[in-house]
Amino acid sequence: MSNVFGLIVSGRLVQTDFTPLTETTFIITIPETESINHAAVFLTGVAPLPAGTAGMVYWSWPDPAAPPSWQLLGHISNAKPSAIFKISNLKKLHELSAENKIGGAFGQQQICNYAQIGISIEPESNVELLASSVAAETNQYVTFAQKMLENLVNFVASFSVTQDQMTPTPGVSYIPLNTLHTWYQNFERRLQQNPNFWKN
């Protein structure tokens, strides 16, 4: 499956030199990652993926003290032959919690001083499982954010007074309660439209 996958990083030439580790796993190194914001991974068209499979795409930051630890980015398939992934928002290796690390996705590897993208050809059912787990996690974030915002609005509203009840206090700033309600409604609307909007 030589040259089946391609990689485009802004300002650089297309790379198709993925190194096969096994019949179903491939990696490519990416030097100088500090300026990378996005990476596009695609099928070159040389050959399709085997029927019923997808290419799960992983990212690994360089770590001079440990072998690669992989983060799942998403997938490509014959039906979805390309994908653009935002790399700049990914957490660096030392910031990852244990549940986000996928240590052995590409077998036992040596320490690498470059970032890497790995592709693992897996059954399409794995993509469906991933999609359902991501949706469940997103719902948890949305619920948490809504409850936190409701708590904030209710807390602040409990201190509300009318303009007649206000006592001038030098050095204290006041915010109209309707401003907080407007902010809350806007935030909740954006959260419903895109639960990850706050990451950008």
Question: What does this protein look like?
Answer:
This is Protein OPI10 homolog. The protein has 200 residues and is α+β, with helices and mostly antiparallel strands. It has a domain at 5-123. It contains 2 helices and 8 strands; from the N terminus they run ββββββββαα. The protein starts with a strand and ends in a 7-residue tail after the last helix. Mean pLDDT is 80; it is low at 96-101.
What's this entry about, in short?
With 200 residues, the chain is an alpha+beta fold. It is built from two helices and eight strands.
What is this structure's SSE topology?
Layout: E1 5-9, E2 19-20, E3 25-30, E4 38-43, E5 53-60, E6 71-76, E7 82-86, E8 115-123, H1 124-157, H2 177-193
Antiparallel strand pairs: 1-4, 2-3, 3-8, 4-7, 5-6, 5-8
Helix pairs in contact: 1-2
